[in-house]
Design brief:
Strand content: 15-25%
Strand order of the largest sheet: 3-2-1-4-5-7-6
Helix content: 25-40%
Oligomer: single chain
Order of helices and strands: HHHEHEHEEHEHEE
Distance between the termini: 70 Å
Structural class: alpha/beta
Number of helices: 7
Length: about 210
């Protein structure tokens, strides 16, 4: 009996999409090599994680969205995929290479090259205009003082009921309870995906009583 090897089907991506994804991975790897604490991972976040991150965005309620740490645009693409108009989204990215890429791929989106701790000095919207802050920042690589500054600035921009959405590679929230208590904030686990490298957990931060 002659053995016939099984055939496997390869899913071919359009050349333009393949090149875009390859470029994203190479750019992310280069950024990680240069500043591993700032980038935190050697690969971009997956689309499965991106879906969890944007699940609560309401594209038609008029609220703006602020993204912290845009990277190669995985979350940016997912945010726009909800139907949110591009002029209602602002992306913070301090890596000049990533910022250039974001402007190239999302020309209608405002890209801000400012630290997240002082983002209110550069946003187009006013405090209270934002329904959500979507954060891809590597909080586990930052100290408590930086956590407090970033959360304070985020909630300065968020309207009542607004949430900061943050992912982490740990099963526990990336911000200590004492920081949350000092800011009057609560946190809840919103989901987890193993279809990401590394596996990731999503947390929602919100004001106590909301």
């Amino acid at each position: 009996m002659q053995y016939k090897p099984k055939r496997t089907r390869a899913i071919a991506l359009p050349n333009s999409e393949f090149r875009a994804r390859a470029t994203e991975y190479l750019d992310f790897l280069a950024a990680w090599v240069k500043k591993p604490r700032q980038t935190a991972s050697v690969v971009p976040s997956s689309r499965y994680l991106a879906r969890l991150m944007v699940a609560r965005i309401e594209p038609t309620d008029g609220g703006r969205v602020l993204e912290l740490g845009g990277g190669t645009g995985v979350f940016t693409r997912a945010i726009l995929g909800t139907g949110l108009p591009p002029d209602r989204l602002e992306v913070v990215e301090i890596n000049p290479g990533f910022a250039r890429g974001l402007r190239r791929h999302f020309p209608a989106v405002s890209v801000l090259e400012v630290p997240a701790q002082i983002v209110s000095t550069a946003t187009e919207g006013e405090p209270g205009d934002y329904q959500a802050v979507v954060s891809g920042l590597p909080l586990l690589a930052m100290d408590r003082g930086t956590h407090a500054d970033i959360l304070s600035e985020s909630f300065r921009m968020l309207r009542p009921g607004g949430r900061l959405v943050q992912f982490t590679y740990s099963m526990r929230p990336p911000v200590n309870r004492d920081v949350l208590d000092a800011l009057g904030l609560e946190v809840e686990r919103a989901g987890q995906t193993v279809r990401n490298f590394p596996p990731a957990t999503v947390f929602h931060f919100f004001r106590k009583g909301e």
